[in-house]
Amino acid sequence: MHIDTSLPGAFTTADLCAVAWLFLAWLSIGWVTEHPPKGRPSVSVLMNEYRREWMRHFVARDPRIFDGNILTTLREGTAFFASACLIAVGGGLALIGKTDQLAGVARQFDLGHVPALKWEIKIVVVLFFVANALLRFVWSHRLFGYCAIMMASVPNSAGDPRALPAALQAAEINITAARSFNSGLRCVYFALGALGWLAGPPGLFLATSYVLFISWRREFASNSRRVILHGAPGVARVPPGEPQRQHPGD
Fold first, then answer.
1. Cβ neighbours of residue 14 under 8 Å, at least 6 residues apart?
2. What is the DSSP letter of 122?
3. Digits of tens for pLDDT over the chain (250 positions)?
4. Which of 52, 32, 27, 53 is nearest to 42 (CA)?
5. How far apart are CA 27 and CA 21, in angstroms?
6. Are 189 and 211 in contact (CB under 8 A)?
7. Pairwise CA distance, residues 197 & 204, whole Å
8. Of 14, 113, 12, which is closest to residue 4 (Cα–Cα)?
9. How far is C-alpha 3 from the chain's CA centre?
10. Any residues with CB less than 8 A from the CB of 189 and at least 6 apart, and which?
11. How far apart are CA 126 and CA 116, in angstroms?
């Protein structure tokens, strides 16, 4: 007896499983990055300690123009990605009204007839990640602005008892801004992965798996992480070029 696995809107069980894998991978890597296993911090967590150390040195630095330039660079990065995502959202919305052209491309690649509604939903999934990234980049940009104001409020005298606590407060806002920025980057990565759905469920599954692997490697197994780990504040020193010691539960 043949069982029809197709669902309303021409979506099959394979489509739904691939989409479920996309969102599961996105949520999982985000959680693991911000809450890594004990003894194996992610790059994001390591950089948090560097940000706190930055603000400790900031208190005694004179003049503080160098710190202002760094913060300006961080804000420019968030502004660039926010602008790019805004353009991508506009392009995606325009593409929804031209799904007939996508259907023609699909027929050229022998993907068969695909209803226009299905193409539109696939584009909406991509737009979900891009729009989410846009919101996170905008919030990150604003938080870096808050951080700049808080840094400006730190007393000029390193001996002032209010200086270090105020600087560490600015560090926490800086960390929150960075967390939002990193989350926005992950959304961009998975938006690119979601484009694999245009090639069908296998394309989405493979693209998502590749993005997941790249995201995990950059946070937990990259050469950059080993360099950052060496001399990181509050973390055991691992000389560059030497194998990292394995901890239980790694």
1. 5, 201, 202
2. H
3. 444 444 445 678 999 999 999 999 999 999 999 999 988 999 999 999 999 999 999 999 888 899 999 999 999 999 999 999 999 999 888 888 776 666 555 555 445 555 667 888 889 999 999 999 999 999 999 999 999 999 999 998 888 999 999 999 999 999 999 999 999 999 999 999 999 988 889 999 999 999 999 999 999 999 999 999 887 776 544 443 444 444 433 3
4. 32
5. 10
6. yes
7. 4
8. 12
9. 40
10. 211, 214, 215
11. 16
Length of the chain: 250
At 127, the amino acid letter reads L
CB atoms within 10 A of CB 165: 12
Q: Specify whether the CB–CB gap between 37 and 182 falls below 8 A.
A: no
Q: Alpha-carbon distance 185 to 132, whole Å?
A: 10
Sheet strands (E) in the chain = 6-7, 11-12
Point out which residues pair with 11 in neighbouring strands: 7
Phi/psi of residue 179, nearest 5 degrees: -60, -40
Three-state SS at 250: coil
Please state the pTM of the whole predicted model: 0.83
Which tokens go with 209?
A: 């798996």
